[in-house]
Structure formats: C-alpha cells, structure tokens
Task: structure prediction
Amino acid sequence: MKDLGRRRLGLLGTILVVSGCAVLAQESFCDKYTGILFGDNTGSNQYSFVTRLINTAFIGNYSGPSSVKITGILSPGTFNGEEVSLLPYLNGGLASANRGYRPGNRTVINFLDDGGVFALEQGKPSYSQRSNQYKLFSHMYQYFGGMLGCSLYGQDGFPAYQGNARMYEVHKFMNIAPLQLGYFTQELSLAAISLGVAEGDALTVASILNTTFGQACAPAVAVIPNAIRDLQAICINTACPPAKDPICGTYNHQGGFGIDPSPADTTAGPQDTDLAPLLFSIANGGRGRYRTMTTSDIDITATIGGKKILISTYTIVAVPDAPISFTASDILVTTIIHDTETIVPSQTLVPIGGGFTITGVTESTTDGWIYSQEFTFVIPSSVIKEATTVLTTDSSVITSTYSVTVVNTALSGFKEGLSLVTLTSY
Result:
C-alpha cells in the first residue's frame, strides 16, 4: 500500500463513521471478495477468505506474492510514527487475558501454543483443536465473518461465533490504547488490500473497527448476527477518544479500565527473536524460497592404535525446520595423526535443491601491488543425520559413526568472529 494509504489508515477518526452493520449494505464485503478470490461464494469459501485475511494480517503474505508491505501483527512495527508491539498480549508476556466475569481475574495465557506461525502459514488456526491458539484464531475467524457480513455465517461450512460477544469483557485487562488498536487495524487493512480488496473498501472496514471498538465508554451495540446489544469498546486507555454519548459508569462497574497489565514472570510463548527469521522469510516471498541457516560444531571420535583421536569440524544446519528430501555428498576432513597429515573421508546429507552462495572480492598485496580476485563460495544447506568415518591404519579398518541433533529453532545465524551473521538460501 502506498504511504498515503498508510497515513489515511492512521487517521481513522476522520474517515466515514458507520455502524458495524453498514458493511452489510447490498453485497457484503465478505461475499464480494469471497467471489473474487475463490469464485464460488460458498460457506466454506467464505470461511477460507476470512481465515486468509486474519492469518495474513498476523504473519504477512504467506499465500502469495504482493506489492503491499505487511509487517504483521506478530511483529513489532510502527503506527503513526510510533513503535508498537502486540506480541506480549499473545505470547503470555503480560497478565492481560480475562478468564471470566469476576473483576480482577487477570491471567497469563500463551495464545501461540499450538503451531504458532507454522500453523497460520498453512491456512490453519492451529494444529489441534485443544489449545489456546485454536480458541483465539477460530473465534476471530467466526467473529470477523459475522461482522463482515458473510451471508452463510452460522450455516454449513461457516460456524457461528462460539466466544464471548462482549468485546470489552474479552479485552478489559489489556488497557488497549489508540496505538495498539491502530496498529491492529492498520495491518488488517493492509492484509485486505494485499489480497485484492479495493482501498476504499478496506478503509470502510477500518472505520467500522475504529467506530465500534475504538471509542472509550461507547454505548452498547450488537456487532454480529443474533447477538444482543452489549459493551464493545476495546480502546479503554485514558488516551482513547470518548464516545459521543459515553456510559463510563457501566464499563467501570464491569471491572474498570485504564490499568496497565503486569508483565509475566516468564513468557511461555515465542519471543520476537524466535519469530523474526520465519516472518522475514514470509515477508520476502515465503518459507519455501528462503531458508535461514546456522552452524553446529561436531566432533568425530575415532580410535587408532589404542588412542582416541578427536577430529573437530562443523556442519551447516537449516532452521527452523529441516528439509525433507536429501542426497548424499562426500566430504573430506583433514587431520594430523602420528605427525602425518591424514585425509578422512566422510559423508553428509544435503537437502535436494538447497544451499546458498556467498560472493565477494578478496585483495592481496605483493611488492606494493594490490591484486583483486572475485570469489564465489557455495555452502550446501546440509543437515547431518548420520555420518560414518572410515580410517585404515596398520592394515586395520576402523569405523566411527556419529550423529548430530538439529539446533534450536530460535537460533538465526552463526558466530563468525565476534559478529552474528544470518545466511539466507535461494
């Protein structure tokens, strides 16, 4: 989206003010773009459209390339020039979740506990149906489907909303301010435009979100089909603009607002550094095209002449997950045994089609002359599962087998001197 469009999304208060039902006029937003993207306007296709919209807003353009830049709700970003991060509300970093109507029941919950980004980029809410992540994202698909006017909402292929329809109650311990709500709305709107939604339609939806959820002490309103009028304000920080006819006493009676959630003692969910490599890959074309590498040191131990010989080397390991298809590649390790340089043949498993290339220029000086030489260094994106070393000494054949464990997925580079370098394969 153009910078102008992004600025316009930041000025939601000046955009057309409509109620949550205005989007249902004539052909609904959901029906219109389900037909454009999927052809048949069925209940399952409507659900797929809303799923793609929400997942794209959270992680970026996982379903295909787009010229629209989406940072993603799970990534730190900016709104109106201010830095913002919504991840602590989602990874259990804050005591901000509400587990019921009892005031003061602030809970730490990790909502990325069942597949995280990996499940979302596969077009799913989660890997199973018994997790916090499943409940959060499936409820979001259902709620937005009802709000965006999906005509088959609540029918075959599109389940009706199963959660609490009072959005104030759901969010009241988060102390959401215009910065946080604005960032969420901005990324959702950019996600819509990246999927082919007209900018005017995306701005109308942004206005609905702002009007329905972005005004403190707003009067009760029904947002989704078959719901009763209820308290919906999510923006409850003191910086939030007041509603035209505020009913703050009603909101205060339900638990208060304007209190910052306390940080959790420990965070069970992923951190920014854990998510950054994969989200960067998605933002630049998808995990299938880009793969982040790290190195893992290994030691080969062989017994020669009754003595154990340690041969140090390293391998390149793909993160966050190992490739599936491999081909064998022979490697040679040079070591010194009994003062004699010895070549040790070994074998590594290399993912088919994997690898990355480093290019550059090296310079050397001789007799005052500087020579420049271009070089290309190709490193296979290999993940060693098992390797065998065979040595022949004193007419004896000695075999040593070792294995390597794939490194932690939170790692995103390898140590080169004192700098941390991230390599990306193509």
